[in-house]
Amino acid sequence: MCRWAAYAGAPIFLEEIISRPGHSLIHQSHGATQCHSSINADGFGVAWYGDRPEPGLYRDVLPAWSDPNLRSLTAQVKSGLFLAHVRASTGTATSRNNCHPFVHGVWSFMHNGQVGGYDHFRRDADMMIPDTLYAARKGATDSEALFLVALAEGLDSDPRAALERASARFIALARAKGAAPHLRMTAALSDGKRLYAVRYATDDAAPSLYYRWSDTRGGMAVVSEPLEAEEGGWNQIASNTFCTFDGAKVQVEAFMPCKLVEGYLQSTASELAAE
Amino acid sequence: MCRWAAYAGAPIFLEEIISRPGHSLIHQSHGATQCHSSINADGFGVAWYGDRPEPGLYRDVLPAWSDPNLRSLTAQVKSGLFLAHVRASTGTATSRNNCHPFVHGVWSFMHNGQVGGYDHFRRDADMMIPDTLYAARKGATDSEALFLVALAEGLDSDPRAALERASARFIALARAKGAAPHLRMTAALSDGKRLYAVRYATDDAAPSLYYRWSDTRGGMAVVSEPLEAEEGGWNQIASNTFCTFDGAKVQVEAFMPCKLVEGYLQSTASELAAE
Amino acid sequence: MCRWAAYAGAPIFLEEIISRPGHSLIHQSHGATQCHSSINADGFGVAWYGDRPEPGLYRDVLPAWSDPNLRSLTAQVKSGLFLAHVRASTGTATSRNNCHPFVHGVWSFMHNGQVGGYDHFRRDADMMIPDTLYAARKGATDSEALFLVALAEGLDSDPRAALERASARFIALARAKGAAPHLRMTAALSDGKRLYAVRYATDDAAPSLYYRWSDTRGGMAVVSEPLEAEEGGWNQIASNTFCTFDGAKVQVEAFMPCKLVEGYLQSTASELAAE
Amino acid sequence: MCRWAAYAGAPIFLEEIISRPGHSLIHQSHGATQCHSSINADGFGVAWYGDRPEPGLYRDVLPAWSDPNLRSLTAQVKSGLFLAHVRASTGTATSRNNCHPFVHGVWSFMHNGQVGGYDHFRRDADMMIPDTLYAARKGATDSEALFLVALAEGLDSDPRAALERASARFIALARAKGAAPHLRMTAALSDGKRLYAVRYATDDAAPSLYYRWSDTRGGMAVVSEPLEAEEGGWNQIASNTFCTFDGAKVQVEAFMPCKLVEGYLQSTASELAAE
C-alpha cells in the first residue's frame, strides 16, 4: 500500500500539499494511519504541470522525508496541477523506474493498491502493451503496465472508459492466473488539463480516498488520507466510482470493470489454450 | 535513535545476524520496539573483518530492507567479527558518509544515541580532532567526531579509557554550550581482534543493550534488541559499563566519563573565554 | 560499448583484476582504448562465487571509479571465479536493474555489444522469455533479455548451444524488425563451475576480447582489453567462437547463430503475420 | 577541475544553458576541452532563483548526462538567474553534500579549481568558519569551506572584498601548510539579485572563463567553456578580476587576494606557534 496526493486549482507551491500540512504526504510516508503499513519509504515521486503540455517528473528511491532535493523542489515550484506519491513496495525492487507517478506524453498516472497474484501473469500483462508504447515500459511494476494498457485503450478520448477496460483486462488475468482479491486500487491521472481519480476494488476493501475543495486556496486536493486530522470538509469518494474534477465541481461516474471481465476472460482463455 | 548488532566468534554468514533472525537487524529497521522511533531507514552499514587487518565497509542510504546489494553481501560473506547498523537520523543528512560504522585503519566504530545540543558546538567538537586524523572526517555526525576523538585519545592502547576521555570531552561541551541530556549512547567498536561495547547515559535513560552467547554457533551477539523475541539467554548490559568480549567471556568495567568532565570543563571554559 | 573482465583460477582478491592493474577495469571505466567511447560510467557490477552455489552480486549506478563500497568489497572478498563489468549505456536508463552482471540461480552473465534496432522489437524479445523466468526480468536491457532467453534455451545442459539459439532468435528479430548490424557481442557467463566466453558479430566488427593465463597466480583472466599495456601473453579470442576455460586450458568452439536464423525468421514471420 | 555555467537575464528554461547547446554543460560533463580531465562525472548541481528570495537546489551524484530528474527539471523550470555545475572530484568523496552549488540563505556559490595541499590544513580551514555558520558545513570540500568563510567575511555587504579576504586566508594556509599552486579558481556566486564571477590564480594558470550577452535571449551567460564552438561573441574574462553582471553590462574589478596574504600569514603563524 502506498499513499498519494493530487491537486488541481490555482497554482500553489508543491510543499503546500506535500510537506506543510500536519498530516502531509511526507508525514504519511512514515506515519500513515489508514492502511496496513504505516511506512511508505520505498521511493517517491511528483509529476507537475507548468509551462509545457508535458509534466515535469522527479522521482527517487530515498524515503521522501530525507531527500533535500524534494524539499527544495517543493519549496520552489508552483503548479496548478500535480500528482505526488510515496511508495511501499509490494515486492518489486526499489528503483526510480518503479516509482510513481509514471508519465507518457501529456499524461501522468499514479496508483495505490494491488493486482492479485501479479507475479503469475506479469508476462501476459506486458504482452497487452502494444509495440508503440513498449519503449515506455521502463520498470517492472503492475502500476506502470496498467497505465500503458490504459493509454492503449484510449485515455486520450475517454479516460474513464479506457481505465475501465484496462482494469477489466487485469482482473481477467488475475482470475485466470492470479489470486483474489483480483484488483484493489485508487489512482489519479491527468492529461495536464483535468484531474481524474478512481476508487475501486473487486472485493469490499477499496483503499481509502478523499477530496476537499479549499475556497481560500481556490483548489481541490484529492488524497489517500486527509491532510489535517482536525480539518472538516473532507469527502470520502465512494468505491467503484470515477471522479473528474473541474474547479470546485466533481463529476462522479460509475466505474465497473467487472462488467467487462467476462469478455476478456473468454479471449484470455482462448489465448491460453493456444499456447 | 538507531539500532545495531555486532558479532564475535566462529565465522558465520553476516545474514545470520543481519537478516535471518525473527527480530533481525533488518526487521528492527522497520519494526524496532525498544526505542522511540520504530523506523530506522536513514541508511545502514556493515563493517566486517576477513583476511586483512582492516575491515571491509559497506554503507548505503537506502532503507536496509530494500537493498539487494546488502542482501547478497550478507548471504555471501562470512566473518568472525562484524558490526552492523541501521540509522534513524537525529537531524544530520542521509548520506553514505554519515552512515555507521565508521572505520579508520584497523578500527571500526558504531553508535546509537545522542549528544545534547550538538549543533551548538559541532565546530568545537571538530576542533578536538587532531590534524593527523582530520582527513578521516568525511561526514558531519557527532558519532564520527566522537570516534575520531577517541582514536586521538588512544583507542589503540586502552580502548575503555580512550572512549571515556572522548566521551567526557563531549559531555563537557554539551554542558558548556549544549543541552541536557548531555550524552546517551551505546556503542560497539573493534580493532579486528576484540569486540568492545559500551552503554552509558548522563541521565538514567541509557539506550538498551544486550548480549548472548550461542554454544551452537560458538559466537557472541551484542545487540540493541534481542534477535528473537522468544529466545532466552539475552543478558542486559548494565548502564555505565564497558564490556570486552573474549569468546564466551565478558569482562565488564565501569565507564564513568562524568568523573573526568570537570577537568575538561575548566579547559573548555578557558578556551571559550579566550575566543 | 561496455568493458568487462572475468577470472577463473586460484582465489584472489577481486581488486587484483578490478582495480590494481595499470589498465584495470576501473581504469578502463574512464580510459578505455579499444572501443568507441572511452567512458564507461553508467553503472557497474560484480558477480562472484564463494561458499555457496549461487553467486554474490553487487551493482550500483555510480561510476565505478568513485564508489567506496566497490573499493572496499574488492579489497576484502577473495574468489576463484568472478565477473565484473563497467557500463556505457546505449540508451537504456542508468539503474541498478540495468547493470551487469545479471544472475539467476547459479548462473551469472554479462555482455558488451549491441542488438540492432532493439527498441523496435523489445516487446517481441520479452515475449521470448517464458513465464517461469519472467519474474527474473527486472530491468529493460537487451542483455538481460538475451540471458533469460538463453536460460530458457538450456544453458544448464549445453551453454554454447543455448546461447547460440538465443542469439539466433535475437538476430532473427533484428532482421525482421530492427537494423544492421544485427548483433555484436562479447559475453561471459558462468554456472559457478566453469567460465565461458563468447565473441561474435553478424558483421566483421566483433568487440575486442582477450585471455591470459598467469602461472604466478594460477588463474585465467578474460577481458575486453589487456589489463597491462606492456604485459605479454594476451591472446585475442577469434570472432565467432565460444570458449570454455578449464584451468590453463581453453576449449574453442565455433559459435554460428547465423546458421540457425533462417528457421527462427520463418517462425517470427508467421507470428508477425498472425498479429 | 570541474565545469560550470551561470545565467542572468530574462527567464529561460534551464535546459537552454544546461543541455541544449552543442557544447552545453551536459556535453562538457563527458567532453570538456579546456581542462585536464574531459570527464566531469562526480556529481552535479543546479541552484536557481524563482519566486522566493532563497534559491532552489538540486544536486545528485550520478553523471549529469544520465539523470532523468535533471533532464526533466531543466525542461520545466524557468529562471532568470541560475548556477549549474558538473564535478570532477580532486579527491573528496562523491556525495551530494560535496556537490556544487552550495547555498546558504539567499546566497549560492560554485567553484572550479584547487587549493594547494588542502588535505594538510583542512582542519584549519574549518576553524575559520564561525559557529554561526558551522551548522551549514555539510560536506568536506575546500569549496564549501571557502564559501562559508566568504559569508563570514561579509558577502552581504561587499561580495568582491569578502571573497578576496576569504581567498587570502586560504592562500595563507596553503603557503604555511600546503603546497603550490596555492589557489586556482573560477567561481560564480549570487544573492538572487546579481550574478558575480571571479577568475584567479596565484600562478599564471587560472582556469578558463568566458561570458557572452545574447540580445535575442536578453541574457548573460558566464561559462567555463563557450556553449557553442562556432559561435562568436564569447569574451574571455581576464585573470585576477572580479565581475559583476548587470543586464548587458559587466563591471570588472581587480581581484588581488595576494596583497592581503601577508597579514593573514602573520596571524596564521602566531596561531600555529600557539598550538
Automatic annotation (TrEMBL), chains A, B, C, D:
InterPro entries: EgtC-like, Gamma-glu_amide_hydrolase, GATase_2_dom, Ntn_hydrolases_N. Keywords: Glutamine amidotransferase. The keyword Repeat does not apply. It comes from the Bacteria. Residues 2-275 form the Glutamine amidotransferase type-2 domain. This is Class II glutamine amidotransferase. It comes from Cypionkella aquatica. The lineage of its organism: Bacteria, Pseudomonadati, Pseudomonadota, Alphaproteobacteria, Rhodobacterales.
